[in-house]
């Protein structure tokens, strides 16, 4: 029998003995009065009643020391002969193990080494652990183990625990920023009959009650929120999960959290001003700085945010004119630059791959503008250059971390763009948009000028210095065989 099997066997035996004695090892409640942090702040000699998990257990015979951990922190508890009732001390020694949840009553003391502790007068088992915790130094082994047992990763690693607290603060900062500026938080459907609002490959599932195939949304209700602009709302936003059936890498996952806002009577220039203000607010609220080191880039949010033109930047970096070059020339350039790409006859998908190569050198913060109409089927044309749209993408550390535009509200042009997207889809482009007739119908009732913008939790990962997958509390895993 291995070491772990022996520990499990011993703990199950203790569990059975407790049940025979009439002790419930899994009571439904414990009347916890103070957190560990509140105990640490309590006066010496004051009485406290707290609960948490035993993280260490050091029995020296006449005295024993343990670390008790709850959601607020850790505190030492002391079981001492003649101070702790003999019955309580005996119960502790015989039945309690590292990993157990216990309730403790006692008196605040300061040990000889000056550590604030609880001198135990009463201890109660409130949840018996059967499996041992990971060893302190060995820990969880490998990324697979860490993600699959994330609850243990959080329990044993305060840095990971604090990351998810920061992530909550990140979304609350965005939410509060928008609410303070008069935006209304809304909820739109996750299941859709048409995958709209973005260029992406959707997940498909079947709705049994209606006997129809539906898509998991690929945007944060973009077309729905624009229907709300038609309905008369002027500022809306949504924070929620969205799904794209694409690859996994440093910046991409299949399901992740996104925020999108829609602002009537505003255009993309207004959007840029608001977004810059919002990003600075997030940085200050959550990270208490405007300066970051991200993937080798030095990024300072307090500096002037630059604007980069799509056409000009690609020409500068590759000497290629995106409007004159044909598919053959673009592929040749991609091959020269050693850029992997999906073989496609769609010129603009290839141009997008070219852009993704060029953006890697940009530290930012700044805004990419002047994107071609073909890459932005929902954005309004730029009247100064009708080949382009009124769009902006936030560029930080060589990547896009935010996308917005003046929304196309001409229903006839929108209809033509949808038809063009459907041609691409029939030609084999799985990411092209569906022709959403209900959305076009809504636009025909009239939608005011509107700016829309979206940002995902990729921004949090960038600012925290972690990959997107690391920042997901329970990433999707293949089932264990």
The proportion of residues in beta strands is 25-35%
Shape: elongated
**SS-derived structural category:** alpha+beta
* Strand order in the sheet with the most strands: 6-10-11-20-19-18-15-14
For the sheet with most strands, the description reads: 8 strands, mixed
Compute the average pLDDT. Answer: 92
Domain count: the total is 2
The first-to-last residue Cα distance is 23 Å
Helix content: 25-40%
Q: Please tally the β strands and state the result.
A: 20
Descriptive notes:
This protein has about 475 residues and is α+β, with helices and mostly antiparallel strands. It has 2 domains: about 5-125, OB fold (Dihydrolipoamide Acetyltransferase, E2P); about 155-305 and about 365-470, 2-Layer Sandwich (BirA Bifunctional Protein, domain 2). It is about 35% helix and about 25% strand. It has an 8-stranded mixed beta sheet with strand order 6-10-11-20-19-18-15-14, with helices on both faces. The chain has a 5-stranded mixed beta barrel with strand order 1-2-3-5-4. Strands 7-9-8 form a 3-stranded antiparallel beta sheet, with no helix packed on it. The radius of gyration is 29 Å and the shape is elongated.
């Amino acid at each position: 029998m291995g070491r772990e099997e022996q520990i499990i066997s011993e703990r199950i035996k203790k569990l059975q003995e407790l049940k025979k004695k009439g002790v419930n090892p899994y009571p439904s409640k414990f009347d916890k009065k103070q957190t560990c942090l509140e105990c640490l702040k309590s006066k010496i000699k004051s009485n406290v009643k707290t609960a948490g998990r035993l993280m260490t257990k050091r029995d020296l015979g006449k005295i024993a020391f343990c670390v008790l951990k709850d959601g607020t922190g850790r505190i030492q508890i002391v079981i001492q002969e003649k101070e702790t009732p003999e019955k309580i001390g005996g119960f502790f020694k015989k039945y309690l193990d590292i990993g157990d949840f216990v309730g403790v009553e006692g008196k605040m003391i300061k040990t000889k080494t000056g550590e604030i502790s609880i001198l135990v007068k009463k201890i109660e088992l409130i949840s018996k652990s059967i499996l041992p915790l990971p060893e302190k130094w060995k820990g969880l082994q490998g990324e697979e183990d860490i993600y699959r047992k994330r609850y243990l990763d959080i329990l044993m690693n305060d840095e990971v625990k604090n990351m998810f607290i920061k992530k909550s603060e990140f979304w609350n900062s965005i939410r509060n920023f928008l609410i303070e500026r008069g935006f209304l938080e809304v909820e739109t459907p996750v299941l859709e009959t048409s995958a709209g609002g973005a260029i992406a490959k959707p997940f498909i599932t079947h709705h049994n009650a209606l006997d129809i195939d539906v898509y998991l949304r690929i945007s944060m209700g973009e077309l729905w929120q624009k229907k709300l602009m038609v309905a008369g709302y002027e500022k809306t936003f949504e924070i929620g999960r969205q799904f794209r059936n694409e690859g996994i890498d440093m910046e991409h996952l299949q399901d992740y959290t996104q925020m999108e806002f829609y602002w009537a009577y505003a255009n993309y220039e207004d959007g840029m001003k608001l977004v810059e203000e919002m990003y600075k607010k997030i940085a200050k609220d959550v990270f208490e700085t405007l300066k970051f080191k991200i993937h080798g880039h030095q990024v300072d949010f307090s500096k002037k945010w630059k604007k980069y033109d799509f056409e000009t930047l690609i020409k500068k970096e590759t000497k290629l004119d995106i409007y004159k070059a044909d598919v053959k020339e673009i592929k040749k350039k991609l091959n020269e630059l050693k850029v992997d790409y999906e073989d496609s006859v769609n010129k603009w998908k290839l141009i997008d791959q070219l852009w993704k190569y060029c953006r890697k050198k940009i530290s930012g913060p700044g805004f990419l503008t002047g994107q071609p109409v073909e890459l932005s089927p929902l954005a309004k044309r730029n009247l100064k250059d009708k080949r382009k749209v009124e769009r902006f993408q936030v560029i930080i550390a060589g990547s896009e971390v935010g996308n917005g535009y003046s929304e196309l509200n001409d229903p006839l042009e929108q209809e033509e763009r949808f038809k063009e997207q459907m041609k691409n889809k029939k030609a084999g482009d799985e990411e092209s948009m569906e022709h959403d007739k209900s959305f076009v119908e809504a636009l025909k009732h009239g939608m005011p000028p509107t700016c829309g913008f979206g940002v995902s939790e990729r921004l949090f990962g960038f600012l925290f210095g972690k990959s997107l997958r690391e920042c997901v509390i329970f990433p999707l895993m293949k089932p264990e065989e």
